[in-house]
Amino acid sequence: MFMIGLTFALVMLFEWNKMRKQNKDKRTILIVQGISLFFFILLEVLYAFQYNYTIPIILNICIEQIHAWMRGK
Hints:
By secondary structure, the chain is mainly α. 82% of the residues lie in helices and 0% in strands.
């Protein structure tokens, strides 16, 4: 997992450096870095809960909540 974090950090650093050299707006740089950070956090959460919460379990929970909401409970 350390290597994945290091890879994300290197990609974010290279992307920031490339956009800075191209004189991109600060807002554009923040949006790109924010999206990269969001995906990194999402990856870490998925890794941490890989055995507790899988996608089918989460989908089942969401569907049950939607059914309960539609029935008015």
